[in-house]
Every structure is written in structure tokens, then in C-alpha cells.
Prior knowledge:
Largest sheet: 8 strands, mixed
Distance between the termini: 37 Å
Radius of gyration: 18 Å
Strand content: 15-25%
Number of strands: 10
Mean pLDDT: 96
Amino acid sequence: MLFLLSPAKSLDYDTPPQIQTYTKPLFTRQSAQLIDLLKTRTPQQISTLMKLSDALSGLNVARYQTWSNRFTAKNSKQAVLAFNGDVYEGLNAKTLSGPQLDWAQRHLCILSGLYGVLRPLDWMQPYRLEMGTPLATDRGKNLYQFWGPQIAHYLNERAAADTSPVIVNLASEEYFRSVDRKALKAPVVNCVFEDFKGGKYKIISFHAKRARGLMARYAIEKKLVAVKKLEHFEAEGYRFEPAVSRPDQLVFRRRLAD
């Protein structure tokens, strides 16, 4: 199985990585093309394009200007250790062992507006470029058109080498839209996490993001290679609900005490 995650807006480049092992990103040519375009934008233009505060737009303009084709230990960090949002708090990669990170490297992909697809140990320079950003390029009016079927083709290559060619989607809708479903050959299984609130079960963004990270962690710890095994996930009160699930959508629910 191949697990997909979204990136995070928050980054941690202060905490030293617990391992020195790294790989280089696969789509650096495309990343450089996007960076060259972003370098032409002023802080005000970036602020408008990405709906950022002046401080954040200034920070990211500086990041674009210093981004380099040469990835080093000084300007980069392994992606799974650099991202620091809700998903990655659930994943808690900084406490994974070397062998566990090696397993994640073989079974986990992080979708990215700038990098296309990142493997967990790929060196990543800091950036902000959400997949839904309407950044016009010579390939179209947004990043979905820029990436086109490239991401799906890569996932096809990865899945073809797997004994169980299944894509487990733990990414947000914004990021999974970057995967061209017409070009994708492997079947997809979505994992949905719902909490009971206001008299019904619903997806609560913060909790769902954390749960996706927890599920990825569970898969890494158990070295899961079969979809059926995902049904045993029970972290932080979630339970598999077969009555509302389908073969292509596993629903996990929890009802916390008020």
C-alpha cells in the first residue's frame, strides 16, 4: 500500500533531525520553474495571491529568493521532520526509529504544491505554496494544471512495485485533487474520521487532520500491507464503523465525553 498525506503550513527547521539519512526531491526541475516565477512577485502580490498577512508574505518572498537548486544540510531538512502541523503532530515522526522512517520512505508520499510529491526523507527547503493557489504558469491557470498527470504517473510507478497496489488517501481534498484520477491506475481507499458533535457525526478539520497523522503512524508501526488491517485502527478513541463504510471508503468515528 502507498499512503498519501498533505503537507503542513507550519514548519520546524530549528529542531535538529534525529537521523542524517536523506534523499533528494524528485521534481526539482518543476520546483525551480515555480520558484523562478514566484521570485518575480512582490510581497504585495504574494499577499494577494495567497491571502497572507504582510509579515507572512514577506517571509515567503525571502524564502523564494534564497531557494536553491543545491540542497544541503544547511538549507534543507527531511520533509517528514520539517512539517509541523496537525497531521504531523499525530504522526510524530521525530520519535520514529531509523527502520520505521525507512519503512515510511517506501510506503508514504507527501503531496506538495511546490515539490509535487515528497518522500518522507527527501530534503526540503522551507516554502509556502498551497496546492489550491491560483498561480498561473505556461501550463495553465493554477497548480493543478501545472502538475497535470505527473503526480499520478509517479504514483503509478510506485504502486506497480508494490505487492498490494492500493493508494490509501489520507490527504485533504485540496491536495488529492492534484492526483489525476483518470491517469491513476491503482485503486484508491479513502479514510474518513468523524466526531460526534451537535447531535450527529461530522468531520471536524482539526481532529480529522490529527487522525490522518495517527493513521499514518499506525501503518508505519504495524508495517501494514493490507487494507483490511486498517480497520483495527483505534487511536485516541476512533473505531472503524463498517455500517457506514464502503470498500473504497473506511469511516472511523468517535464519541468523546462532553
